[in-house]
Amino acid sequence: MRGYTRHGLNQAISRDGVGVSTRAILDAVRNPTKIVKLAKGAVKYVGENATVILNRSGKVITTWARTKLGWRIKP
User: Fold this and answer.
1) What is the pTM assigned to this prediction?
2) What is the signed CA dihedral for 15, 67, 26, 1, rounded to 10 degrees?
3) Which letter, b or e, does each residue of 34-57 get, where b requires 16 or more Cβ atoms within 10 Å of its Cβ?
4) Residue 56: what pLDDT?
5) For 13-34, what is each residue's pLDDT tens digit?
6) Between the CA atoms of 6, 7, 8 and 14, what dihedral angle is there, to the nearest 10 degrees?
């Protein structure tokens, strides 16, 4: 992982009003339960608590929490 696109950062901070925790993002990329190759060199990493899509440059283009443990903000 080499950073975030603007959209990826916005999603990590505020997706669904809670964002996605840095811990869940890093865990998905480092310890994926599933890896899916997508178009244009993008790769989807499915982790226990989050899903992350990286572009061919290794930047997060989008992310979402899969469980409450993946939330950045705990309401």
Assistant:
1) 0.95
2) -50
3) eeeeeeeeebbbebebbbbbbbee
4) 97
5) 999 999 999 999 999 999 999 9
6) 110
The Cβ-side half-sphere exposure at 45, using a 13 Å CA radius, reads: 23
Residues 61 and 7 sit within 8 Å (Cβ to Cβ): yes
Q: How far apart are CA 21 and CA 39, in angstroms?
A: 26
Q: What is the DSSP string of 16-71?
A: GGT---HHHHHHHHHS-SEEEE-GGG-EEEE-SSEEEEE-TTS-EEEEEESSGGG-
Phi/psi at 42 (5° precision) = -75, 155
| CA 66 – CA 34 distance, rounded (Å) | 13
Residue 59's identity, in one-letter code, is: K
What tokens were used for 28?
Answer: 């998905």
